Amino acid sequence: MNSEKPFSLDELPPVTSWLCDMDGVLVREEHAIDGAQDFIDALHEHEIPFLIFTNNSIYTPRDLSARLSHSGLNVPEEHIWTSALATAAFLTQQSPKSSAFVIGEAGLTTALHEAGYVMTETSPEYVVLGETRSYDFNAITRAIRFIEAGAKFIATNPDVTGPSEEGILPATGSVAAMITKATGKSPYFIGKPNSIMLRAGLNKIGVHSEGTALIGDRMDTDVQAGIEAGLRTHLVLSGSTTKAEINNFPFRPYKVHNSIADMVDVVIENYKEAEETGLLDKLEKDREEEEMLRSPGETKFDAGEDKKDEKDEKDSKKKLFDKFTR
Fold first, then answer.
1. Is there a contact between 96 and 112 (Cβ–Cβ < 8 Å)?
2. 262-273 average pLDDT score
3. What was the pLDDT predicted at 285?
4. CA–CA separation, 264 and 236 (whole Å)
5. Residues 269-305: pLDDT tens digits?
6. What's the rounded Cα separation, in Å, for the pair 133 and 162?
7. How many CB atoms lie within 10 A of CB 40?
8. Where are the alpha helices (DSSP H) in 115-216?
9. How confident is the model over 109-127, as a mean pLDDT?
10. How far apart are the C-alpha atoms of 71 and 66, rounded to whole Å?
């Protein structure tokens, strides 16, 4: 019988890595929110691991980095994590280098291509639905027929609408509902509130949930996903959820703040505490030991790297070496 007592989140070690939502936290209507660059600067200055995440699957990290730069924020592309990247990581775990029929933009197709997936219209293993600017009826029809024939249905995120200058637009969740109605098959959604998106992000930067906190502006996506991933969650009131609406949910964020500007001191306080207690030195030592144990062909992009593929790659390199050294 397990006799361990429940513990308070305040008993966890200082936060040494951060996940932060983009829209409503760092930017609003393509304008930087006060304090956003100060927050990012604090992370860079103290070399704290972090990711900026978004359910948006249209753009590549490079595109989003450029868009943030236009808003006045300097966020390198390697610090951006999208639902498209999370989808590629998930599919790599499930069925490495397989095939998919894809409805989506460059953010999704690029992520799948870099993961070794073949995009095809001939007997795909998966139908992958992402956000796009123009949904094609013929493409949706093909998706329906592939799913009816046995293809597995994956969608990048469940958002039913998205913003535009003219008003709301139908998003991934709306089109997924139409396909579900036609096939009777519901997709597996990768993006938040599914915590798998955050867990894949933790794997990418090589950190653990107990030392990571999340910052978001929505209770129904950000905070829910963070709680389910075992993270301390900080809700900022600069986006979707108001203070009065918090009580409408059966769960609570760890802390509530007015905006990202309030998080700068929180980041620095946690860093100093981790430094004073020797936690940073311990984490650095653990990372060095992990790198020493990691085989040369293995990466930390995804915890589910296929060992067979690694062996095949080594065999291929050996054959190539032998060919040129005869």
1. no
2. 97
3. 84
4. 13
5. 999 999 999 998 888 888 777 777 765 555 444 444 4
6. 10
7. 24
8. 137-148, 172-183, 196-205
9. 97
10. 9
The answer to which of 47-51, 162-166, 241-245, 317-321 has the lowest mean pLDDT is: 317-321
Bigger pLDDT: 256 or 280?
A: 256
Closest CA to 131 of 187, 174, 177: 174
Q: In 3D, which of 87, 171, 179 has the Cα closest to residue 132? A: 171
d(CA 240, CA 282): 38
Task: Please tell me the total number of residues recorded for the chain in this structure.
Answer: 326
Location of structure tokens 């609408």: 161
DSSP string, 78-141: GGEEEHHHHHHHHHHHHSTT-EEEEES-HHHHHHHHHTTPEE-SSS-SEEEE---SS--HHHHH
Q: What share of the chain is helix, strand, coil (3-state, %, to 5)?
A: 45, 15, 40
How many CB atoms are located within 10 Å of the residue 141 CB?
12
Q: Are 236 and 213 in contact (CB under 8 A)?
A: no
Catalytic residues: 21, 23
Report the CATH architecture of 84-189: 3-Layer(aba) Sandwich (3.40)
